[in-house]
Specification:
The complex is a heterodimer of chains A (136) and B (243). Chain A is an alpha+beta fold and 136 residues long. Chain A has 2 helices and 6 strands; from the N terminus they run H-H-E-E-E-E-E-E. Chain B is an all-alpha fold and 243 residues long. Classes of the chains: A alpha+beta (136), B mainly alpha (243).
Chain lengths: 136, 243
């Protein structure tokens, strides 16, 4: 290959690596700030002030959902630690026990007072009548 | 012989004549495939066990998202080709692809928002996947307006190529965002390494819709590149013959 083109290839590689390393440094320093939510385990050793709004994500513990008129309470768990949530309002259709949820709210006395409850679904799609088998 | 073929095809004139020849076959072929897959996906596949009917927007959302990233990669390859070999056709392709890429990214964002309302309960959240896709959309718009702001085409082509290469780092970030950080968006259902986590009855129409959408978008790129060539080479005698 002629030397001019070789030089161009090197400069393209250089520019691309420069861009990659710059962005990597930024992402590395932002680290967990780019996470959309905390898990209950991550929250365990953290001191979050009561006036700070946080998002907590995990699964709705089965059997924990209690509805009293328009308010609802449930427990978010990551199967290691869990947090109790109190919420006044309507939850999304996909909200149910043993499925993913993300809650925005304030943490006071180990209870998350929610302003917003969002349902998180996973990447599995299948017809309703198929039995879920775990052998794969 | 391959070298000769590439050299011929890289001439805007040959490209234009070949495109005009094959365009309508690609168009009708992919239109039929896309329409059939959509009908199959909307009417002949069962509901999802969690999301019910609302998952069906997947037949638009996934093809559009896939294309938004693929088109950027195509721009990056054109940029490298242009910067190393100074192939004019590659430069025309970069700016021909950009608006189509912006369009597919826009469709991906809108269809994602529409999908988010019944499932997540929100149409917009600043999670890593959604935000990085918005950045991709803004990048496309930025590249287009940058190119338009130059009166000297050659200068614009070179600057654009460099910026496309710098911005290419966003593509792996979008792809891996759902694995690197916690996001509201679910992780990928179709990967190269694992068995798809989407049932075959939904997977086949999805594959069809991706192929059909891909072909339709290719047609748009062909039309747009045809326009670029005619515009940029308007003083050449062969263009006058063509028109």
């Amino acid at each position: 290959m002629n030397p001019i083109r070789k030089k161009r290839i090197y400069s393209i590689l250089f520019v691309f690596l420069f861009s990659v390393s710059g962005i990597s440094l930024i992402l590395y320093s932002l680290n967990s700030n780019l996470d959309y939510f905390f898990t209950p385990t991550e929250l365990k050793d953290r001191n979050i002030p009561a006036d700070k709004r946080i998002k907590v994500g995990g699964m709705v513990l089965s059997g924990s959902v209690e509805r009293i008129s328009s308010s609802i309470s449930f427990v978010i768990t990551d199967y290691e630690n869990s947090i109790k949530v109190e919420y006044e309002g309507i939850v999304p259709d996909l909200f149910k026990e043993d499925s993913g949820v993300v809650v925005l709210g304030n943490l006071r006395d180990k209870i998350l007072f929610a302003e917003e409850v969002l349902a998180k679904h996973d990447e599995n799609y299948m017809p309703p009548n198929i039995e879920i088998n775990d052998d794969n | 012989m391959i070298k000769k073929f590439i050299h011929q095809f890289a001439s805007p004139k040959t490209y234009l004549y070949q495109v005009s020849r094959f365009y309508k076959y690609i168009f009708y072929f992919s239109l039929v495939i896309y329409i059939l897959s959509i009908i199959w996906g909307l009417f002949f596949t069962p509901e999802d066990f969690v999301q019910g009917n609302s998952y069906r927007i997947i037949y638009l959302h996934v093809p559009a998202s896939f294309l938004s990233q693929t088109l950027y990669l195509a721009m990056a390859i054109s940029s490298i080709t242009y910067l190393i070999w100074r192939v004019k056709l590659a430069a025309y392709l970069i700016i021909a692809i950009a608006p189509i890429g912006a369009m597919t990214t826009f469709i991906a964002l809108i269809s994602g928002s529409i999908w988010g309302i019944p499932t997540w309960g929100t149409w917009w959240q600043w999670d890593a996947r959604i935000t990085s896709t918005l950045i991709l959309f803004i990048m496309y718009l930025g590249l287009i307006s940058l190119h338009n702001s130059f009166s000297n085409h050659e200068k614009a082509d070179k600057l654009l190529s460099w910026l496309v290469i710098v911005g290419a780092v966003n593509i792996p970030i979008i792809k891996k965002s759902v694995d690197w950080w916690s996001t509201l968006h679910q992780s990928a259902s179709i990967t190269l390494t694992d068995k798809p986590s989407i049932d075959p009855v939904m997977l086949y129409p999805l594959m069809g819709s991706i192929i059909g959408f891909f072909g339709l978008v290719i047609c748009l790129v062909l039309l747009s590149s045809k326009y670029q060539i005619l515009h940029r080479e308007k003083n050449k005698s062969w263009v006058k013959d063509y028109v």
